[in-house]
Structures are given as structure tokens and as C-alpha cells.
Amino acid sequence: MFREQDYRAPSGFPSLLFFLVVGVLSFGAILRGAAGNMPGVSILGVLAFLACITSLGGLFVVNPGEAKVLVLFGSYKGTVKNSGFFWANPFLTKRTISLRVRNFETQKLKVNDSGANPIEIAAIVVWKVVETAEALFEVDDYVKYVQVQSESAVRAVAQSRPYDSHTSGEESLSTHTEVVSAALQQAVHERLARAGVEVIEARISHLAYSPEIAQAMLQRQQASAIIAARYKIVEGAVGMVENALELLSQKGIVTLDEERKAQMVSNLLVVLCSERAASPIVNAGSIY
């Protein structure tokens, strides 16, 4: 496995000045040798001038948020991450790699959740390169590698949880967004660690049932909501009836036998739990 090495490149300004001075002197030696019929001096001047021109090819600039990976005849020599103007062996291949934070959105993937329900899901992944040697040499194309592995992580997380929770405390994709985001970030990080990439954030950007079951699942959600609402209504109605019977008994307003209590409870529950307003019937005679 390739590991990043720091390459200490000298500043380019003294090197540039040195090569310019040597170049001027070598050019002067060429002219002097030609004028004085001294071929040896001219040859040395030409060689020195060519060496200076070749050495100028070793000058390079590292912009902020970038790095230069240096390779000599297929051998990795190191990485320059500090921004500035530098000089290195002109025969070194200098490959630029961005260290800036990047983000991309995965395609809308159609997968099955843990309940085998087809859903559509997409995510946004924020990442950056932290190990330049791994990014360039461990994988063929680290940008494409990030995209493919991120989609793989999204599929894995989507298949491990249901779209919606049907029991208390169950983690689902739609309700536990923070938990799902943390799991997604961890899954993406594990897949991208080999490429020298750090995952800063990963969040779901799109989540929906597939069109073929969307209507049925909407009805299911509506039914669940109605059942939950009815449960609360009945629970409250029972408490109100219990309170009414207790007050009637304590204040001695009326004495009811068990049969009349049951009838009163039934009537009150109908009134309290009905979706429509009750239409009372006034009894002017005896209740018996």
C-alpha cells in the first residue's frame, strides 16, 4: 500500500535566479568562444545553457487547496502540499491533485428496504482527498471510485432499515434521519478509506416509495394515522365517562343500577367517539 510522503522542495525563486545567471554566463561563453575561435569554450557554454533550460522545467507552482505528487520514472518520491513556488528535479512527473472539499449527489436508486418494499433513494456526499498517494495509486480513478462506492453504501443502508416505522422505537429511513445519516457516513467512509478519501458528511437528499406502490403505501399511512387518532379519542372518552359516573355517585344526583350505568356508558361513548354531532332525544317520561 502506498503511503503519502512529504517532499521538501526548495523555493523556486533562488533557483530561478541561479539558472538565469548561469544561462547568461553560458550564453556569454558561447559568444566568447565563437569570437576567440575557442571551440572548447563554446561547447561548454552550449552544454551549460542546455542544462539551464532543462533545469527551468523543474519549476512548479502549488496553488492553495492543491498538491503536487512527484514521480520519477515510475517511482513515487513524495507530495508537496504547501502552496507556493518551488523547484524540483526536472525529470520528476508532477501530477496535480485537488485537496478541496467536494460534494456530489448520487443518482436516484431504486432499492428494496428491509421490508422488501421498493423505494427511491438518493444521497449527498461531501468528501475530500487526505492521502494523495492512495488516491492516485491505490485506485484507477478516485473520483469515479467515490461515486460508485457511495452508491453502494446508499444501497446497503437502505436495505438495512424499513422506509417507515410500524412499531415503537423502530429505526426507519423516514423518521430517524440523524441515525440514518450517521450510518450512511460510516458506510461510505469504510468503503472510501482505501482511496485516501475522508467523508465529511453524507445525508439522504431524496426518499420516496416507488411509483408502483406509492398510492397503496399512502393509504396504509393514512389508515395508521386514523387508528392512532381513534385510539386517543377512545382513551379520552373512557376517562370522561369514568369521571362523569364518579361525580354523579359522589354528589348523589342520581342512583343508577348496573344496567343503567351500562346504558349510560354506551350512550356517552357513542356521543364522544362519533365523527358527527349527536342528535339528542328528550325523554319527558320515566326512564323506566
Task: Give keywords.
single chain; alpha+beta; Tetrahydropterin Synthase, Chain A; 3 domains; 3-stranded antiparallel beta sheet; 7 helices
Explain briefly what this protein structure is.
The longest helix has 41 residues, at 211-251.
Description:
48% of the residues lie in helices and 21% in strands. The mean pLDDT is 82. Helix 4 (142-159) crosses helix 5 and helix 6 packs across helix 7 (258-273). Strands 6, 7, 8 and 9 form a four-stranded antiparallel sheet that branches. Strand 2 and strand 3 (75-80) form a beta hairpin. The chain folds into three domains: 12-62 and 85-95; 102-209, Tetrahydropterin Synthase, Chain A (2-Layer Sandwich), CATH 3.30.479; 214-273. The protein has helices spanning 12-35, 39-56, 132-137, 142-159, 177-192, 211-251, 258-273, and strands spanning 59-62, 66-72, 75-80, 84-87, 93-98, 102-105, 109-112, 118-129, 197-209. The chain contains seven helices and nine strands. The protein starts with 11 loop residues before the first helix and ends in a 15-residue tail after the last helix. The protein is an alpha+beta fold and 288 residues long.
The top level CATH class name of the largest domain? Alpha Beta
What does the largest sheet look like? 4 strands, antiparallel
The total of helices stands at 7
Return the average pLDDT rounded to an integer: 82
List the helices and strands and how they pair.
Layout: H1 12-35, H2 39-56, E1 59-62, E2 66-72, E3 75-80, E4 84-87, E5 93-98, E6 102-105, E7 109-112, E8 118-129, H3 132-137, H4 142-159, H5 177-192, E9 197-209, H6 211-251, H7 258-273
Helix pairs in contact: 1-2, 4-5, 6-7
